Amino acid sequence: MTDDLTQLTIKEASRLLRLGSISAADLVTAHVQRIERLDQHVKAFLRFTPEVWEKQADEADRRLRQGDAPPLCGIPLAVKDVLCVRGVETTAGSQILKGFRPPYTATAVARLFEAGAVMLGVTNCDEFAMGSSTENSGYFPTRNPWDLERVPGGSSGGSAAAVAAGEAMIALGSDTGGSIRQPAALCGVVGMKPTYGRVSRYGLIAFASSLDQIGPFARSVDDAAITLSLMSGLDPLDATSSDRAGMEVLNNFGAGVKGMRLGVPREYYDVKGIEPGVKSAIDAALAVLRTQGAEVVEVSLPHTDYGLAAYYIIAPAECSSNLARFDGVRYGMSEVDAPNITEQYLETRRKGFGSEVRRRVMLGTYALSSGYYDAYYLKAQKVRTLIKRDFDEAFKQCDAIVSATSPTVAFPIGSKTQNPLSMYLCDVLTLGGNLAGLPGISVPCGTSHGLPVGLQVLGPQWGENVVLRVARSYEEASGVKTQVADVV
Ligand code: GLN
Questions:
Q1: Which of 251, 286, 227 is nearest to 467 (CA)?
Q2: Residue 60 located in a structural domain
């Protein structure tokens, strides 16, 4: 019975909670027991927060008894280690922030708490969200629940793995170049990146501020939609947040795809390195969508080839500036034995940052330095504009864009760590959405060699409801349900 409670969707769990057949404490206990059994293998969590979940579950049960339960009352939630939670150690997967306990809570998390969610713990990720496999974590790698010898994707690999393993019902991640959608694809769960500005970034430890967005992981499109709607909307603490109503993401999203035009960009469909098994899963998904009444049309995103290069200048440039604040004086670890303050900065950063973060800071500093700024950073920004225009043109011909989320299924641990470029190539189908600020989802679409494949749906700016509509229609018609992975 307790394991059954870890296979539920929000809708199913909420029904049982409201009927009084189970309590929030039962639901949380079932997840905690599953964590105790499985997380020694999966290693999705960096830390657990019993002091938080006990209080929140009690409060949820009190509200259920009073009959004023909010929408996520009692729902077990995992939070990526880049989102500040007051009093809970938050380290961005980095040794440099070891011991840092933020004095405030990120708006996205606070809104889910208000909606009744119960936080189980903090999930592992690549250090400062830089990576596609969670192997760059400053603590330990997370494993894919479908095959423990493989990566869960990244950078939000811990959140994706926790949901896939039935250790949490929903989880939060951040997506700068694909870090929600790619791990969702590799772990066989739903993951959504909203339009830039839909969700407040207040309390998110910044990687690349013009690209970062927070979004949900869930086991169904409905669950992702409801979670996203509850965390969206204007926040005076983030000047880039939009005043659009959070609930608009749900508009008409159950209407099906009949009469919709779905664009398949030829540059994405035939992207270099795409595995045949991934391609056939996408072909099958397109056939399902056609059967549901969608018209599938070919579109073009001509600057796709330049996306990766532009992203790997812009993201490191912004990171080199954002990460300057980690100097050993204000946050986390500090190398106090240094002979002077300059040495203290240098030693703290040398010891506290891992090699990928140091690489990005150096790349970014170089791209921004005088003499190189025009050649690299400015040029990359121009390419970004061209990519945005490609999407604008494509959306004149279609309502949404569909493709694979990742060119490959989950790869073996260690297989890409020696070659940064091979790791960067994981993002080739997702980072365009970040450069253009668009909403995107990854929804499970079958398997290749027994490993999950993800279908990506991208929409126009503020078109979350369109994206969700396509994803939901596919999920319903295909019968491909998110399964809780059988870990051991
Ligand atoms: N894998 C990409 C990178 O390393 C994207 C990471 C992300 O979306 N946070 O930059």
A1: 251
A2: yes
